[in-house]
Amino acid sequence: MSTASTRLPEGRYGRPSDERADRKLKIAGSVLGAALLAGIGYFAYHYVAENEISAQVIAFKASDDAVEVHLEVHKDSGASGYCTLRSQSSDGAEVGRADFRFTGSATRIDRVVTLRTTARGTTAQLLGCHTG
């Protein structure tokens, strides 16, 4: 009786993996992964740290031709900018959109602004705030 060989037949399954090629692939993957993390960190920092104005809609009251919006704005001292608001009707159509400017040295502004509409608005949405 003969014993079975534990070696694979030569040439049947291709070359054994090259350790140097594996090492190069691991290094390249590590460098690309680090670059991806650095890019995500860069954009996250600029999104959070550079945003000098933030706001929220506290309440709103709609009438047939306008929506009064109670808007609370937090900003850096001396920063100026604007916030964009919109209103939609009950069927989802946009009935009003406007930019409201904020300037001055106050860091917190609590103001009721009037958004004129073409029909009765049922919502008051803050689309965003920007410096400038």
TrEMBL record:
Keywords (A to Z) from UniProt: Membrane, Transmembrane, Transmembrane helix
Domain of life: Bacteria
InterPro entries: DUF4307
Transmembrane segments: 25-45
Protein name: DUF4307 domain-containing protein
Species whose genome carries this gene: Streptomyces echinatus
